[in-house]
Amino acid sequence: MKAEKEAFSWASAAFAAPLLLILAVLIHSGVQGVNITSLETLIRGTVGGEALLSVRYSSTSLDPPVIKWQLKRDKPVTVVQSIGTEIIGNLRPEYRDRILVFENGTLLLHNLRLSDEGTYEVEISITDDTFTGEGSIDLTVDEPISKPHVHMVTSTVLELTENFTLNCTHDTGTKTTYSWAKGGLPLLNETRLLLSANQKVLTITRVQVVDEDVYSCMVENPISSMRSLPIKLTVYSVRRLKMPALDILRILFLANRHQHVKHAPPLAAALQATAAHYLLHPTRLSLRLAPLADTLAPPPNPHRTIAGGGDTVRAHQPPPRPAAESPVESHSPHLQPGSLRIHPPLHKNPEAPQKYRY
């Protein structure tokens, strides 16, 4: 009995060995039939440029391959089908005059669009082969970044100003990332210097003299990077201004109050620039805000008197202006700091009380 079992086992092994060999040959020949390889699995393209989705295949058959490219979406989009280099059927409207298929299965896309971005899947089959070769390539399409600029309401600012912002702006560019430099060194989030979530906006929560420096921003994406021209921020110390403390507080109050109000940033810039002029004119100057009266709310009371610190300030209601000089221009975002005019002292006698008209 034992001898019969051993004989049966040897007979089974002898019969199975050729079958396994035949199966291995078939599998091996199938893989060799259509085997796709790609040189790159990630291609980065530029809007308006070209993208070469390069593949090649090997097969034991001499018949022309059937090539099919699809763009992976929720529902796959057929880009092109061809037998060799001859395209089968009609191309979709968005691909007409933009597609070229090579003999080895490579796909060339002309005049790239942002909508071309995605994963491209290729299938190559040949009639004599059992298995179909498959592969995929990821394509990204981006728009180059234009030259960025650092935008500030004003390049001169008073110490203790609150929430002073620097904005990194540019016209074109996709998938952008931002970074900042102060004095040529990378700038990170600090206690007072805060970056927005996308790092496009830099906010100085409370300006100090040490913030006076050169600032620039860098914008990058997968295909390009650009740095802005450096811009100097000048900080004037309150302690250096030869003017009454009450006047400084008034200017800071108005500047901070109107920093983020609609149409008011030009007013804040004007106040900052006016305060800076005190360095050059160390005398008590009067500030006439009539040209910008329409940016203030509510309008000043002509009979209200403000007293404090030994100074008296009487609110001044400007006289009606001719139609040709309507203050509507003050709503313009291009209002210049010069709109806030500086006037000489109202009294030449330094001992006499001085009045400031707002």
TrEMBL record:
UniProt-annotated stretches for the region Disordered: 296-358
Membrane association type: Single-pass type I membrane protein
Record-level GO cellular component terms: cytoplasm; endomembrane system
InterPro entries per record: HEPACAM_domain, Ig-like_dom, Ig-like_dom_sf, Ig-like_fold, Ig_sub, Ig_V-set
Compartment(s) where it occurs, according to its Swiss-Prot or TrEMBL record: Cytoplasm; Endomembrane system
Entry-linked Pfam families: Ig_3, V-set
Superkingdom field: Eukaryota
UniProt name for this protein: Hepatocyte cell adhesion molecule
